[in-house]
Amino acid sequence: MRKKNLAATCFLISALALPAFSQQESLLIGSGDLIQVDVMDTPEMEQQVRVTDDGTVPLAYIGTVKVAGQTPANAAGMIERALIAKNVMRHPEVTVKIQEYATQDVSVLGQVRTPGTYSITTPQPILKVLSLAGGLADAADRHIMIKRQNGEQLPYFVSNDSDEALAHEVLVHPGDTILVARAPMVYIMGDVNRPGAYTIATNDARLSVMQAVAMAGSAAKTSIPSHVRLIRKTDNGPVEKDVRLDAIQKGKQADVMLQANDIVYVPFSWLKNVAVNSASIAASTAGAAVYVVH
After folding, report:
1. 90, 152, 205, 284: least buried by Cβ within 10 Å?
2. Conformation bin of residue 102: beta by default, left when phi > 0, alpha when psi is -120 to 50
3. Where is average pLDDT lowest: 19-23, 79-83, 140-144?
């Protein structure tokens, strides 16, 4: 029974260690990095060398090996094959570790409080790196992109739910670039208290007509909530849909989800303004886009 429990415990520890190991191994060796090379049971072959500008390292017994652009595991395999080819060892077991990174800057660009470059010496959690840049700006899209040095792009969603954000957190490596785009916008026009452009910056990146009108300070008392119009821009021009905001508010109809660049027009009670056409409403949003309301 003890053996079974011990085996289960070892398996659990190994499983928990796998994600962190795989993330660490995705970081590639670069020029100027200081690497540690160890050969099992052969301490005299331990070496600590810096990668040259051409991506190679000079190693005792085997000469130069090009390791730049490789993961530590791949570099270890290359050194093992070189030891065998040089008849130094028959069955070497080599490990390679990055002791010091030459590239220690991570760039955080776009919709953050203080965009710029920040120094990190080891892989850091994405939330910590974003905090170095002052956190997300009000107009930030929560779907951000991490671009690795090798060209790989890793998406990450910054959830407002702390448990969810921490559970799915990823590591940012030295040399990475974090791109934070502007969140998509919708326009709330007409007889509302605060007409203007609003970002879709909710936790689930979804926004409904009723939510959007509420963000705009709700419809004014002089409005006609039964004649709200949703105008959606398409390749063939604006498409208009009638929305019964009064029925939605009373729970008699389902709320309508908005898309980027949608226009919600709440008409005035004055009869002459009820007949405003979609083209004129769409044209009026050009000025609203300058004054984004968060």
Report:
1. 90
2. alpha
3. 19-23
**Helix, strand or coil, per DSSP, at residue 162:** helix
Q: Which residues pair with 188 in a beta bridge?
A: 196, 264
Residue 192's Cβ-side half-sphere holds a number of Cα atoms within 13 Å equal to 25
User: Residue type for 175, please?
Assistant: G
CATH number of 185-293: 3.10.560.10
pLDDT in tens, 13-52: 344 333 333 444 557 888 888 999 999 999 999 999 999 9
- Report the alpha-carbon distance of residue 284 to residue 233 in Å, rounded: 13
Residue pair 127/166 in contact by the 8 Å Cβ criterion: yes
The encoded tokens of residue 212 equal 């959007």
Separation between Cα atoms, residue 241 and residue 264, nearest integer Å? 10
List of residues 6+ apart from 166 with CB closer than 8 A = 127
Q: Is the domain covering 2-100 a CATH 3.40.630.30 domain?
A: no
Alpha-carbon radius of gyration of the chain: 29
pLDDT score recorded for residue 64 = 95
Higher pLDDT, 3 or 56: 56
Q: How far apart are CA 103 and CA 174, in angstroms?
A: 6
Helix residue ranges, H only, the chain: 2-25, 72-85, 126-132, 162-167, 209-215, 245-249, 271-274, 278-288
3.30.70.250, 3.90.1300.10, 3.10.560.10, 2.60.40.1890: which CATH number matches 105-180?
A: 3.10.560.10
Q: Which amino acid is at 11?
A: F
Rounded CA gap, 234 and 176, in Å?
A: 36
DSSP class of residue 184? P
Cα 166 to Cα 108: distance, rounded to the nearest angstrom: 19
Domain ranges of the chain: 2-100, 105-180, 185-293
